[in-house]
Amino acid sequence: MVKRIWLVLILSLFLMSTSVSSFAYSSFTHEHTCYQSSSCDDTLSKDLYEWADGTFTGEISDDSGEVIGSISGYLQQKRNPNQGVFQGTIYDASDVEIGLIQGRFHNNQLFGIIKEHEKTPRIYVGSFTGNSSDFSAEIIIPFEGSYSIKGHHTDSFLPLLTGVYDVGIKSYHLIDTNRLERFTEDPDDYRELILQIWYPVSMGTPGERISYMDRPTFGWLFNRSPVPLVTIPDTAYEFVRPYSKQMPERASSEQFPVIIFSHGYDGVYQIYTSLIEDLVSHGYIVASINHPYIAGITVFPDGREIFVAPVQENISIESVVSDVTFVLDYLSILDETDSVLAGIMDFDHIGMYGHSFGGAATAICCYEDERIDAGLTLDGVVYEDRVPVDFNKPFLMLLAEGHRISMGSTYLWDLLDSDVYRVEVTGSTHYGYTDVGLLLHHFVPLIPQKILGFGTIDAKRLVTITKSYEIAFFDTYLKNASIESLYDIADEYDEILFEYR
Length: 501
Fold this sequence. Notes:
By secondary structure, the chain is of the alpha/beta class. The chain has helices at about 1-25, 50, 215-220, 275-280, 315-335, 355-370, 410-415, 435-445, 460-480, 485-490, and strands at about 55-60, 65-75, 85-90, 95-105, 110-115, 120-130, 135-140, 145-155, 165-180, 190-200, 245, 255-260, 285-290, 295-300, 305, 345-355, 375-380, 395-400, 420-425, 495-500. α4 packs across α9 and α5 crosses α6 (about 355-370).
C-alpha cells in the first residue's frame, strides 16, 4: 500500500509539473482559473457557462462508505465523450460550499487539483466508469486518503441550454396531396417533407435523449468538408447527443409562440440544433422543416434518401415557401388533435427564421403570409422580385463579415418601413451560423477553423452571439419584452456592427 501511494504521488507530481499549468489556462479557454491565481476569490470561473457543454452532480463518500459531501459543476468534452476537462464546487454534508475542484478526464482516468478554503491546493488522481447519464469515480489524494463519487452528468458536443425549459421533440413525415413534386416527372409523386417540432417541457422531465442525426445524414455532412477528415470515425455523430428528449409530456397548459425554421440550400435542419434547442428552452415552439431536393439529404422513415437537386430558381424557392404554408396549416390541425401539442401553440404570435436560402424564404413568407409577425435571417439571401414592396413587420438580418451590403441585405434595409435591424459579425462566415464549427472544434481541434471555412471568430462565441439575437428579437416581438435587451447585445461583443431604424 505504501509503495502504491508513492507511485501515485510521483505520477501526480509529474502530471502537475507538465500538464496542470497549461491545463488551467488553455483547456478552460479563459484566464479565470482560481487554482493558480493569487487573486482567487474561491468561486467558480465566471466564464464556465460559456465554454461548458455539460454538467455533473454527485455525492462524495469516504473510504468507510459514509457520505461526507457533494459536488457539482461543468465539463467540456474534447474529441470524444471520454476526454475532457471539468471544474466544480465541493460542498460538505450540510451543503455548505467548502472549495473547488478542477481536473481532466481521459479514457476513464482522472487527475487534477482540489482547493478548499484556507488550505493548500492538493493534487489527486483517480479513475471513473459510467454511461450516458450516470458515473462513479474513485480518487486518491496522496497522504490523505481515497474517496468515492457517484452521480449524474448531462453532456453534449453542443453548448448548454440557457433557458428555463428542457426540450421535447416530435417528428412527422408529411405528404401534401394537393401539391405535385416539381423536382420529378412522376405524375403520382406528391410533395413530401420531414417536420420536426421542438417544444418546451418542464426542467427535469424524463425522456430518452434524441440522436443528433442518422448515419446517412452524417455521411452526407462528412463529405461536405473541403479537406479530408480521415481521423473522424464513422460513428462520431453519436458523440453529439442533443439535449432534446423524444416525445416526453408537454411542459404545461401554457401557450408558447410558434417559430418556423428553414435551412439553407444543401443543408439539413439537424446542423442548426444548438440554435433551435436554446430558443425552445426560452419558451418557444420551433417547427423545423427538412425540404427535400433543397436539403443536402432527406431520409424518410422507410429508408428512402433524397439528395439535393441543382437550384431551379422559381421551382426551388416556391417549393420552400409552399412547404412553410403547408406546415403552418398543419400546425393548426395538430393544435386541436395531437396528444402532446394540442392547445400549447400560440398562433397569435408567429415568427420565422432561416439560414441562407431559408433566409430568402423567410423574407418572402413574411411578405406573403399575414400569419407571420416577425422574421430573422442568418446570412440570408434576398429574392428581390419576390419581395417587391414593403411589408410592415419587424425584421433582423444577422450577417457574415463583409455581407452587410451584399446578398440583398441593402435592398431589404432600404425597402422596409418597419423595425429593421442589420448585424454584421466580424470574423464570421456564411457557414458559421450552424453547428458544424462547434463539431469541428471537437473532432479536428488541430485544424484551424479558418482553413475549413469557418472564419476567425471562435465557433462557440458566434453561436452564443446568434442565440442572443434570436432570443432577444423574438422576445421583443413575440413576447412584448423590452427592446433594450436587443439593443444591449452589441455592447457585450466587440465583433458586432449593429444598425437599426
